[in-house]
Amino acid sequence: MELQEVNITPEHPLLNSKHTHFEDNVVECSYIQGGTTHKTKLNVTIQGDKTKNHAMVTFHDIGLNSVSNFGPLMNSESMGPVTQKYCIYHIDAPGQEENAAKLPNGFVYPSMENLSDMMPKIFSHFGLKNAICIGCGAGANVFTRFALKNPGMVEGLILVNPTILPVGTVSWIGELITNFTTPISEQVLNYHLSKAEVDSVSQELVETHRKHFKQNMNEENVQTFWKEYERRREINLVRPIDPQMPDKTLQCQTMILVGDLSPFVDDAVEVNSRLNPTKTTFLKMADAGGMVLEEQIFKVAEAFTYFLQGLGHIPGVMMTRLARSRTISNSSTGSGDGDRKRVRTLSGGSAGSPHHHHADEIIDVPAKHNDKAQLVSGAVC
Length: 381
Hints:
Blueprint: E1 8-11, E2 22-33, E3 36-47, E4 54-59, H1 66-74, H2 80-83, E5 86-92, H3 112-125, E6 131-136, H4 138-149, E7 154-160, H5 169-179, H6 184-192, H7 195-198, H8 203-216, H9 219-230, E8 253-259, H10 265-273, E9 280-285, H11 292-295, H12 297-310, H13 316-333, E10 342-345, E11 361-365, H14 377-380
Parallel strand pairs: 4-5, 4-6, 6-7, 7-8, 8-9, 9-11
Antiparallel strand pairs: 1-2, 2-3, 3-5, 10-11
Protein name: N-myc downstream regulated
Pfam families: Ndr
Organism: Clavelina lepadiformis
C-alpha cells in the first residue's frame, strides 16, 4: 500500500459548538487496489486545541458522517470533561462529508483495508504519535484493522457496533432482493435499527436522521461506500489460548459498546470473543440500539470517561464531577435506582466500575427514558 498526501486545504467546519474551535481539512491520498494506483480525499475536521497532550480520532458508520455520527455526543454537556482534555480529529470516508459532490464516474472506492492503511499517514501529517481511536460500524472495522497492524499508534480503542466477519452470502442475497424496492434512506435506517427497535426508538431521532440523510448526504456516494463495506474481508483476530502461541489479537486497551436492541449484538460478541480478556471491556447498554451514541448520550459519556480514566487520562476529580451531575439528575426525576449498573458475568458474578471488567464479562447498563437524547438540528448543521 502506497499512500501520498498531495495537499491539505482548509474548508468550512462540519460540527457546530459555541465553545470549541473547529478546523476543516481535506487530505488527498493515493492507494493501490487491483494493482492500480488510485487517488481520493479524506475530509478531516479538527475539534479543539491541537496543543492538547492527548488526541482522539473518530471514524463514522455507513450512511452517517462525522456530523451525524459524533456531533451530538461530542457537543453534549456530558462529554465536556472529555472534550476539554483532547484534540479530536474527525475523519470522513471519501464522499461522505456534508453536501459532498458526487464521486467521479469509474471511481474505485478504497477497501476497508485501504482505509486502515491511510491512518498512519493521517497521524503523521498532524503530528500524532498515538491516539484514542473511536470507530462506529464501518469505522470500527477500519480502526480494528489499523490497531492490529499498528499497535503502537493506538493508545486506546473504542468500538461501537463492531464487526470483523464478512457479510454472509444468504444475508447478502436477502438484502439485495429487499433493496430493489426500498429507498436508500430507508435502507440506511434498516441497517442501523433492528425490527424490535423501530417501534421503541424515538421517532424524532429517526425523522431527524432521515431528514439529515436526504438533505446532507450524497445517496450515490453512500451506496458506493456501503457496497465496498459489504465486500470486506474477515479480520484475522485470534485470542491467544496458549501463551506460547503467536499473539494475533489487539494489543491496546479496548472497549466494545453496543445497545441491547442493536442489530449488531451478535457481531459485537464475536469481536469480543477474539480479544484479550485482560485488555477488553464489553458494555451492552440497555434501552438502546443501533444508534446508541445518540440514544444514550449521558450513559455513553460516562462509559467513555471511565475508560479514559482507566488509561490515566481523566483525573478522579472529573469523575467526581460527573457522578455529582448524575446524582442531581436522579434526584430531579425522583429515581434513585434507575442509574445503577447491573453487571452480569459468564459466571454470574457482579462487580463495580466498567473499566475494571474484562472481555468475558457483559456489563448491562440500564437507563431511564429521560436519559435519551435526540440528534437535534443544532448539533447537525
